[in-house]
Structure formats: structure tokens, C-alpha cells
Amino acid sequence: MAIPTRSAASCRNLVGLGRTALAAEMAAFGAEPFRARQLWHWIYHRGATDFAAMTSLSKVFRERLATRYELCRPLVSRTLTSIDGTRKWLLRFPDAQEVETVHIPEEDRGTLCVSSQVGCTLTCSFCHTGTQRLVRNLAAAEIVAQVMIARDALGEWPSPQHDRQVTNIVLMGMGEPLFNYENVAEALKIVMDPEGLSISRRKITLSTAGVVPMIRRCGAELGVNLAVSLHAVRDDVRDRLVPLNRKYPIAELLEACRTYPGASNARRITFEYVMLKGVNDSPADARELVRLLAGIPAKVNLIPFNPWPGAPYECCSEPVIEAFSDIVFAAGYSAPVRTPRGRDILAACGQLKSASVRPCKSDGEPLSAA
Ligand code: SAH
């Protein structure tokens, strides 16, 4: 059956509402509180897209619901599958804005990379998404919908207890999640709810370029794993790569990591480090990284630079990456080199960019017809 995607003007979409909002909506509709709990189960555990399928509700009530509400997903305007099995969905919202969501299957897990904004304001100089203007924050419902669309496509309803294809979620898609904290938090609470999508906070990682004042709140309120896009060990270099560094320099960022609620040896903070030829890849950089991380339960993720059209950087050679990794590893930190996934469909780190967004002048790309 086709999944409904378009809003009828007079109907409110229930998919993406949190517990409180759904309960309030049902109360206003004159339904008893347990109805909201039943709906929750159908929407987030069973993935229902049609009131008629909700067989634990009376037929009369189902019909009444259908007169006022709908159960919709954003439109999937394009699906691409990489030769390595990575899948990328381009989602289109009713205002024609688009974002990308990526599923990365591995032997023992499946990671869903979720976007938090349309475009990004950060302008990191090595990131493709950064060449795209920020158009807007995603609503909580639009963030949750990315998980639900993956579940639809992978046939994962009702939420399985075992052998899931979406085991982990990383907020590493388009956007800076800590610049859209309220909506991200609301969405993650829905995603983590054990009676629904039921993905544990231990399996969720939020990645930030370093919005220092929001880091503590994220740890205290959500308790998810933290990843930090560090990428450089000196402020002058990081200022160029991640301009947010001018506001929150390395020392402040690392202090926020040192005191991140919930970080421990069992739950380390991930430091992402993109390997850029001749920019941040020397053995001295690796040694400085080790010095900076002292006292932080940390692991380092070395990301070979993923090229995109017009990028002003190159990836380092494998021996250079290996030498860097060896120094970090010898100091007692795990420092795996992340195998690029989905490069052929521009789904790898930093390659996401939805064509519907007006490109910057320097970009030279045509506007899409959207
Ligand atoms: N704004 C958040 C979330 C984006 S995560 C953040 O900065 O953490 C995307 C990750 O991919 C970040 O670590 C980002 O720095 C990295 N990245 C961006 N462009 C890349 C590229 N071209 N090659 C490899 N990694 C890249």
C-alpha cells in the first residue's frame, strides 16, 4: 500500500507528535487518555500509516480519527543505493525543502545518519553541506520521520527486538544539531521511547562542531553519546576549517568535553578528525592531539577526506593516515580509520547536499527545478 505523504489542508498529521502533544491532541478531541497511548503504539511501534489498520480501536473511533487527522511521511523524492549497500534517501517536505538521510549497513549493526537542518550555517571549509545556505531548522516531526522512513524502506515494523537493520542513530547528517537543540531533543525523546521506535540513548550519537554552551545540556537532558568534530589541534588551523572555533576555541571545547555528563571509559567521547593533506596530518599534529585529549575518556575517528566537486582540499595518502593513527593508538586511544561508505552516491561524511537549496554564488551549480 502506498504511504500517504501529502497533507490534506484540514487534517492534522499525528506522526511526529511527542507523548505530551499527542495526549493533549486526544484530550481536545474528546478521547480518553488511554486512546493516546494506543495511538502511540500504532504510530511508533507498528508504523501504521492508516487508521483503518488500528484494529484495537473501535471502528467508529477509527473513522472519527480519519475525519480530523492523518498519518503521513515526507515524500521520498529519490533513493540511491551504493555498491557497498549504503542507501541515501532524499526527503521532500511540503514547503519543497529537502534533506538527506543515509543508512549504512555493517556486519553487526546498521547506522542511520540523520539530518537536523536544511543546509547548515557553519561553513566548515572542507564540508559540502557547508557550501549550502541554511534554509531552516527541521521540526521535531521531520527529524523523527527520517527514522520512520528508513524503517518503512527496510520493512522494520513493528519495531523489532532483535536483528534490527537500524541499530544506531548518528546525528551526523546535514546541519548542526546543537543549533536546533529543542527540536532535536523533542525528536530524540520520541525515538528513544521504549514503547515506540525504542532506540536506546546508548545507541544514539550526536555530533557537534562545538556549540559549547549546549553540550552540557545535551548530556544532562538527553544522555546520548557525544561526537565532536575537532579536525585540528591548533586554533589558527581550526579557525580556518571550522569557523565556529573563533567563538568557542579548542580549550573551551575540550573543557566542555571533560565535564560532559555521562562520559566514562565505557562511554567515550568520539573525536572526529578529517585527514586533509598537508593541513592537519603531521606526526606533530598527532602528538598534540594526544596531549590535548589527556583526561578525557576519548576515542578518535580518523575520517579520510571525502572529495566533492570543487573542494579546496585533498585526502592524505594511506601511509600518512596510518602513521597518524599509530601515534594516537600508541598513546592508548582507539583511532580507527573510518572506511568511507557510499562515496559513489555522495552519501559519505560531508558530501550531503540537497540540490533544491539555492547554491552559493561561488558554487556554480545549477538550481534544481524543485
Ligand atoms: N555539524 C555537526 C554534524 C555534522 S557531522 C558536526 O560538525 O559535527 C558530519 C561529519 O562529517 C563532521 O565530523 C564533519 O566535520 C565531517 N565532514 C564534513 N565534510 C567532510 C568531508 N568532505 N570529508 C570527511 N568528513 C567530512
Report on the structure:
The chain is an alpha/beta fold and 370 residues long. The protein has 10 helices and 13 strands. The strands form 3 sheets. A 9-stranded mixed beta sheet has the order 3-4-5-6-9-10-11-12-13, covered by helices on one side. A two-stranded parallel sheet has the order 1-2. The longest helix has 15 residues, at 140-154. The model is unreliable at 356-370 (pLDDT under 50). The chain binds S-adenosyl-L-homocysteine. Residues 122, 124, 126-127, 172, 176, 207-209, 229, 272, 274, 303, 305-306, 349-350 line the site of S-adenosyl-L-homocysteine (SAH).
Provide tags for this entry.
370 residues, 16% strand, single chain, alpha/beta, binds S-adenosyl-L-homocysteine, two-stranded parallel sheet
Number of helical stretches of at least 4 residues: 10
Order of helices and strands: EHHHEEEEEEEHEHEHEHHEHEH
* Main sheet attributes: strand count, strand direction, barrel closure: 9 strands, mixed
**Largest sheet: spatial strand order:** 3-4-5-6-9-10-11-12-13
Structural class: alpha/beta
CA-based shape: elongated
Cα Rg: 21 Å
Give the strand tally: 13
Percent strand: 15-25%
Bound molecules: S-adenosyl-L-homocysteine
Task: Report the span from N to C terminus.
Answer: 26 Å
Q: What portion of residues is helical?
A: 25-40%
Q: Low-confidence parts lasting 5 or more residues at pLDDT below 50?
A: 356-370
Average pLDDT reading: 90
Assembly state of the chains shown: single chain
Short characterization:
The chain is an alpha/beta fold. The chain has 10 helices and 13 strands. The C terminus is likely disordered.
